[in-house]
Amino acid sequence: MSAMDKMLDGMPMGMRNSVTNTLDNIGLMLSIKNPKVAMSMAPSAMRGMVMKKGKGSDAVKMHSGHAVHFDLNYGTDFPEMWELYRRAVANQWDGERDLDWSTDVDPMNPENCILPEEYAPFEGLAAKGVRFNAQEKQRFQADMAAWTLAQFMHGEQGALYAAAQVTESVQWLDGKFYGATQVMDEGRHLEVFYRYLDSKMNKVYQVNDNLFVILDDLLTDSRWDVKFLGMQIMVEGLALGAFSTMYNYTREPLLKNLLRYVIQDEARHVHYGVLALREQITEHLSPRERREREDWAFELALLMRNRFMSHEIYHEWFGGGARLSLRDWNEVVSEAPGMKAFRQVMFQRLIPNLEYIGLMSDRIKQHYEKAGLATFLGGRNATQLSGEDLIAENDALSAAGAEAHNNEAA
Ligand SMILES: [Fe+2]
Ligand SMILES: [Fe+2]
After folding, report:
1. Distance 195 CA to ligand 2 centre (A)
2. Which of 82, 85, 159, 397 is deepest in the core (most CB within 10 A)?
3. Contact indicator for 135, 166 with CB cutoff of 8 Å
4. What is the 10 CA–ligand 1 centroid distance (Å)?
5. What share of the chain in percent tops pLDDT 90?
6. CATH code linked to domain 40-409
7. Environment class of 90 (CB within 10 Å of its CB; exposed 0-12, middle 13-18, buried 19+)
8. pLDDT score for 179
9. Quick one: pLDDT at residue 311?
10. Binning pLDDT at 50, 70 and 90, where does residue 90 land?
11. Which residues make Cβ contacts (< 8 Å) with residue 53, sequence separation at least 6?
12. What confidence score (pLDDT) does residue 8 get?
């Protein structure tokens, strides 16, 4: 036990939680090694973690100083992006027409549950002395599902604006065509996640502070390629990890279908992201700028791995802290089966893309190795994976999971 653990142990629970929180926020900034990266993230960390801008009001203003690149040439300049644009136009779907909103969804129904029991951290909680009865378990699972879906919705709103900003900034006309379809895609994603939450879950959680920091950071950065890297590679990777995990676990047919459509769109978004960034990073950036992007991506990857601990659920269920400390909660959640599955898919998608776009020098590779993420090097990148491939991969995983579940039950 460290000196800090001993000190925390001697404190009343409320104080212990607030110290854990503060150390956590300071730790976020101190863990960033590159001072330029720390400087660029600090204002967003301040707004998200300290001022809690994502909570408590109806709207928040974010100022971005990016330049609009107005094309005067109108010629074909990136055929692969034009291809993606045509494919995106042909594959537009309609959330109203293509999803069966008459499906009766009951978040408390164990038969068709949104997230099943094996997703939730009940074992870890029991090891910490927290035991739920059957009804509490169902309510907890429903809350976890509502929290996760709400974060999807907030992320989609961020994606909508980032896609619009990037469409203005990119220097390829074919990229602008493509970007226009992504703006439409993200608008539709926002529409369907909101509709699902509003009409089926009856509960909408506020944006998680860490997610807010990431969204604020990339929406306010004036450098289009940083915005692009943040949204098209990092956050889309995170989203694919989270959507795929939910797609694999859920037994609720409407949500499964909704996610199937969304995942196919997201595969295209990441594909576009790697095409644009590979050219930008390998052809147009200086070694110093490339190094800074590398560090930024690495920090963001750690942030995404370590910090989505559903604190909103903790405060709702264990608010006073009498039954469970925030520290124990963090430990339980990070080891939960659903969380592990999510991290696995997220990094399996993310790392090969960073490699493909030229942000995996030997220098930064060592950091990924230390963080235990090097196993994903050499995997298939977004140009080698279509939306159909992703769904097929997920369906195979779901089938294997269902079989294991049935064998266990037998
Ligand atoms: Fe999206
Ligand atoms: Fe997207």
Report:
1. 18
2. 159
3. no
4. 45
5. 54
6. 1.10.620.20
7. exposed
8. 97
9. 86
10. very high
11. 47, 60, 212, 216
12. 55
